[in-house]
Specification:
With 346 residues, the chain is an alpha+beta fold. It is built from ten helices and 13 strands. The structure holds 2-oxoglutaric acid and fe (ii) ion (FE2). InterPro entries: DIOX_N, IPNS-like_FE2OG_OXY, IPNS-like_sf, Oxoglu/Fe-dep_dioxygenase_dom, Plant_2OG-oxidoreductases.
């Protein structure tokens, strides 16, 4: 049964597999007037504002690992249409079978990972339904949902637009690291999976997670959310900060592969989704990832400071990542397992 169907049964309590027993009650972010993740205006990215924007992206990626972008070039109309198709899809009967049928990753390892998503080793289960569409490197849109009728046409356009934005962002991030413009995209930007997500209303929101605390294993994530909210980010002092919905903005976050590539400069930070007791929430996350390359920092970034992490391929990383215990239980961010012990300075 999909989580959506379960939620529609009118349960007073969530079933046991969703119960987050290792945290009696989550400290809920209560920062309506507190700090907020930076919002960066991309207007003029190819003009005289470029150096200012790159500076802002650098600070946000180093200090927060998260930022929002506006004037990013993806039209509000396309965003509205994509959410509309997504809503229609999630209204269709036999949702669970459809989500299973259409979730496709680009290779064997990634498919294995998808199957592990809700296994008990990663318990509790996430209070959400999701479907991953593979866009690059192996576009297989002919296997995407044929209902609702405009779904493929609209979501293809959406993926194309986000893939272009991904290139712009990786180029800016590469420059922000003092590297040649296209280096980061060349090494880490080839793949894109787009995850269409629905978080149903939850009868016990303080006991379940829409998504458990995690950092993203990929390069960068480009996510858009509706007006409901629920995404929270753990800032560097350990406080949970809400990412307030900003109409037509994209949320961009640094993933583990970028932290590895940038030799620890850009930070892949923990985030989670807290469900809402009244409203369902839709979000769409596109995950840029280096499917075939071996990722390690370029020599320019290791000259002064040694290499911080062992290099790896994404496939290898992500399979091990998904098998590892969830972060707050294990006490480690998964990326810590790749840390190279540093010799004391002097
Ligand atoms: O839906 C969201 O806001 C975040 C989802 C997320 O963090 C993920 O799928 O990795
Ligand atoms: Fe995430």
């Amino acid at each position: 049964m999909s989580v959506k169907d379960m939620a529609s049964l009118g349960l007073k309590e969530i079933p046991g597999q969703f119960r987050a027993s290792w945290q009696v009650k989550k400290a809920c972010a209560s920062n309506s007037n507190g700090p907020a993740i930076p919002i960066i205006d991309l207007a003029g990215l190819h003009g005289e504002r470029r150096s200012l924007i790159i500076e802002q992206i650098k600070t946000a990626s180093e200090e927060w690992g998260f930022f929002q972008v506006v004037n990013h070039g993806v039209s509000p109309q396309l965003l509205d249409e994509t959410f509309q198709e997504q809503r229609k899809f999630f209204e269709l009967p036999n949702l669970k079978e459809r989500l299973k049928k259409y979730t496709i990753y680009s290779d064997k390892e990634m498919s294995q990972v998808a199957k592990m998503e809700n296994e008990t080793i990663r318990s509790p289960s996430n209070w959400r339904d999701n479907m991953a569409l593979n866009y690059a490197p192996n576009l297989d849109a002919q296997k995407w949902p044929t209902e609702p009728p405009n779904f493929i046409e609209v979501t293809l356009k959406y993926n194309q637009a986000v893939y272009q934005l991904k290139k712009e962002l990786l180029d800016a991030l590469s420059e922000s690291l003092g590297l040649p413009t296209s280096l980061l995209d060349d090494v880490c930007g080839e793949g894109q999976n787009t995850n269409m997500i629905y978080y149903p209303p939850c009868p016990e929101p303080s006991k379940a997670f829409g998504v458990k605390p995690h950092s993203d294993p990929n390069t960068i994530t480009i996510l858009t959310q509706d007006e409901v909210g629920g995404l929270e980010v753990r800032e560097k002092h350990g406080e949970w900060i809400q990412v307030k919905p900003t109409p037509y903005a994209f949320i961009v976050n640094v993933g583990d592969q970028l932290e590895i590539f940038s030799n620890g400069k850009d930070k892949s930070v923990e985030h989670r989704v807290v469900p809402n007791c009244e409203k369902g929430r839709f979000s769409i996350g596109s995950f840029a990832a280096p499917f075939t390359t071996h990722v390690k920092p370029p020599p320019e970034l290791t000259a002064k400071q040694g290499q911080l992490y062992n290099g790896c391929t994404y496939a290898d990383y992500v399979v091990r990542f998904k098998k590892a215990p969830v972060f707050p239980t294990s006490g480690h961010k998964f990326i810590d397992h790749l840390k190279i012990p540093q010799l004391p300075q002097n």
